[in-house]
Amino acid sequence: MSMLNIILFGPPGAGKGTQSEKIIEKYDLFHISTGDLFRKHMGEGTDLGKLAQEYIDEGNLVPDELVIKMVKVKIQSHENAKGFIFDGFPRTVAQAVALDEMLTSQGLNISGMLALEVEDEELRSRIRLRGKTSGRADDQNDERINNRIKIYKQETLPVADHYAMKGKYHGINGTGSIDEIFNHICMVIDLIK
Ligand code: AMP
């Protein structure tokens, strides 16, 4: 049986974390959320956490080199997984190229990109709401939130084209109930797996 490797894509606040949890449970995939990994490093005060903190707090991207190295270690230490779900990664075309190379070198590939599509205004209000409980510095003010959305458009959206050109892009309406969105995701996964 081939591995199921999914990229869960979308702007900040699109619901990637929420849907990832449900996907992992149903399909038994290994979750790689670069945002969660960085927050763990920051919480533990590791060297990587210290390097990443300033970028993250301001809503800027952490340099590719650091992100790619961190993901490589995770993939290599879970070679026996049934598959991976990449959440919040890749966020630049350079990261996408590096991911494709990492997988190819192990005889693997990306099964598909599932892209949650949500309007900007809805994203802002979801992030502001999350900010009340997340404790995340980057959820706390409109300037940082707007910066993240701007960077998503400039740096991250081209990653969707990268996978669209390979016929791997699957758009999912990211508004509606959590279960409606999840059902749509499952339909797509069952088609590509
Ligand atoms: P997230 O939890 O996915 O919203 O990520 C939170 C923050 O971590 C982002 O705003 C970035 O500062 C940083 N980050 C997470 N993933 C990446 C990535 N793939 N490339 C660069 N920075 C990232």
Main β sheet profile: 5 strands, parallel
Bound molecules: adenosine monophosphate
Radius of gyration: 16 Å
**How many DSSP-defined strands?**
5
Taken from the alpha-carbon principal axes, the silhouette is: globular
**How does the helix and strand content classify structurally?**
alpha/beta
Distance between the termini: 10 Å
How would you describe the overall organization of this protein?
By secondary structure, the protein is α/β, with parallel strands linked by helices. It has a single domain (4-192), classed as Rossmann fold (3-Layer(aba) Sandwich), CATH 3.40.50. The protein has eight helices and five strands; from the N terminus they run E-H-E-H-H-H-E-H-E-H-H-E-H. The protein has helices at 16-27, 34-44, 47-58, 64-76, 93-104, 120-134, 142-164, 178-192, and strands at residues 6-9, 30-33, 84-87, 112-117, 169-173. Helix 1 crosses helix 8, helix 4 packs parallel to helix 5 (93-104) and helix 6 crosses helix 7. The longest helix has 23 residues, at 142-164. Residues 12, 34-35, 38, 55-56, 59-62, 67, 88-89, 91, 95, 138, 148 line the site of adenosine monophosphate.
